[in-house]
What does this fold into?
Amino acid sequence: MSEGGTPVMIKVLVADDHRVVRAGLAALLRQQPDLVVVGEAGNGEEAVRLAGELQPHVVLMDMQMPVQNGVEATRQIRSHWPGIEVLVLTTYDDDELIWGGLQAGAKGYLLKDAPPEELIAGIATVAAGRSLLPPHIAAKLVQVISSGGPGRPSELESLTERELEILRCMASGAANKEIAAALFISENTVKTHISNLFQKLGARDRTEAVTRALSRGLISL
It folds into this structure.
């Protein structure tokens, strides 16, 4: 992150009910020159309170915590302070937790066994306002989509075949440059299509666009 060309430290709040895990994560993050751990929370209610008090750039959020779970804590944080991003970090590769966290407004999702460098990169990604949805997590979303899911509004039916191709690439975790290469089009063209997709799907970012497309059966993995 930067302001006026000057690097800005990314402020992180760590929320996890296991003290040893929380301390380990905080110690890892404190080793990074561009990260600063501003606080630690042991449950969802405390995470919401500290998010309001400390105004971190990113909350590293466990999903299963006492008093208030990570899904509800994420929902409250994103509702009250939309400038605070949430990165879910959990042991559980659970379909409903993934769906719930993303629906609540989390910008990304990582498992706790992810390599440290992937975690650090993930924090930087969501702090910059970009979504983080690894391919194996995107694939899990399919499992929570039932045949009786939400119907397609008329605007969704107007998606072009090219837009659907780009959606499938996005769902696989491909970056704009990779999508452009795969479809033999320019990156600017990809960006234009993605902008149109966001408008048609009523999505704010790539994660939400993919989630909505999957839930409506527009694409599959």
Q: What stands out?
A: Residues 143-215 form a domain with the Arc Repressor Mutant, subunit A fold (CATH 1.10.10.10). Residues 187-201 form the longest helix (15 residues).
